[in-house]
Structure formats: C-alpha cells, structure tokens
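Same chain as my last thread, 336 residues:
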Amino acid sequence: MLDIASLTELLAQPQKIVITTHHKPDGDAMGSSLGLYNYLIQLGHHVKVITPTDYPDYLSWMPGNETVIIYTDNLAEAATLIAEAKIIFCIDFNALGRINDMGALVGKSEAFKILIDHHLEPEDFDDYRYWDIKACATAQLIYKFIAEELGHKELINKEVATCLYTGIMTDSASFSLPNTTSEVHRITADLMDAGAVNWQINDLVYNNSSENRLRFLGICLSQRLEVLYEYNTAIIAVSKQDLEKYEITTGETEGIVNYALSIAGIRLAAFIVERANEVKLSVRSRGEIPANDICKKYFNGGGHRNASGGISTDSLEQVVNKFKSILPEYKTLLIK
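reply #2:
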C-alpha cells in the first residue's frame, strides 16, 4: 500500500491519470469525479474521467463534463487510457463489479489504484485508501483529500467547488440526512466561499425535469404506490411499459423513492423498476431499519443503512412479492 508521502511524491510530477466511478453515476459520483479532475489538471496531470455507463442529463452542466468518456460508447479509447494510466482513482464505489466490464481492465492494470469512498466493506484491490463510512458523500472526502491530505486547499477553485458542492448536496438529500454534520456545513461554506453558487446548483439539479418526467411521477404516485401500514412500508413498482410510455431516460427515476418515504409514519420505502433484462430496487429507510441488510441479503446489492440498492433477474411481480415477504422479519423495527 502507498502511504500519503509516497502518493504526494507521485503526484508531484505530471502523470497519466484515469478517474472512474460506479455505473449509472449519480450526483455524488460525478461531482466527486469532476471535482477531482478539476483539481488534478491544475497540477499539470493528463486526466480523463471514464464512466462505465451514461448518466443523467441534469448533471451534464458541471465543469469538465465535456471531457468525460463513456466507456460503453468508446470501448477502444477507454481501454487504451486505462492501460496507459499511471494512477487510477476509483471514486464512490467499493468493488470492481460496480464498474461493470471496466472492472476487469482496472483490476489487471499496473497503475496505482487510489480508492476514495464511503461505502461499507470495500474490496481489497486498491493501493491507497481514503475511506470513511461516516461521510455523507464521497465529495466530502474529496474535499478533505485535497485540502487536508495533500494540503492544497488553495487549489479548490470555483470549478472544483461547484462539483464538490453538487456531490454533497445530492448525496445528503439536500443536507437532510443524519450524517449531515456540522463539519459538512463548514465544508460547504468553504466551497461557497471558493465560488460554488448554492442556489444555482440546486436549480440546475432539481428544477430541470422534463414534462414527461412529471407526468411519469404523477402515475407513480397515483397508480403505482402501495402503502402497507401494518409494516409502515411503501412501495412504488413500475414496469418497462411505464418507462417506455413516458420516454423515461437515465436518471429520471432518481429520487422518486423519497416520495414514498415522505408519507407520515412510513419507515421503509422501495422504488422497484423493471428494466430491459433485470429489476432494480432503490430502498430508503429511517432510523435503525437496515436498508443495506435487506438489499444485501435478498437482492444482490447493498449500500448505506438508510439508502441502498439491489438488483434481481426475477420478474417485477416476483420481486415485489419477495420484498413484501421479508417485511415480517423486520416488523419489530418497522413498527417501533
């Protein structure tokens, strides 16, 4: 494993660097990756952000986005960049499986692999790890990595700050989750001082819905929402046909699960969506209810205690029924 002195020495000279993050990257994944990108280019490094898949249009405004390479659209170029990299930053994921087919390329690369993440149980594939499960967002850790570990707070300019603020804002659910500590607010204050315009970032992320997305949301709430009050649980399940009818694109289902969790008394919520070859789950919970345990044990997933995801190759109906069937196991916590 590298120590911080060795890493600092390595970064003192221009290097070929790849930054990557998990598939279907969200605001924290892209904010962290582009925040780090905008820092590293100031040091003269040759840097490319490579995402395993596409990502939501509402994140495309962030500084540096125009340089991002989507692996599935540029296989040969991405493979060459990974093979030639001296350093690969692995951002906001804890296992190579989270970057799909890129995992094999990154795994066999001779580059130094730097993991910066806040998810549970990271795999042992990295050479340097900056990891804290208590962090509300990986973007929080990127800020600390730059400002504290590397001592370059002065290089957190407007571009870096804007990206990192976006990551923290989105992964903390607009600063509403329990791990939004006083330190988080001090960091976001620093980012605002460095040029991040908080209201503008909020507007770009949250007020850019398409008409179809709003109509789809209406269907989710009026026709697809099921509330199980005996378990203080709410489920929204949508089919491929629902997605196709409203032309829902990548990222447009983000956050819908929170509407289910916002119902008074609800302590566990699931958004279950049928995709082309699989069914995906977004699970949110309150307090001690372990969304991560549910996803890990039953749906090949995981994440944080109160915000996790899963996946299944069963039918949509089977997944919904399976989710309901496990609720008695957690009843004591759910009705507490």
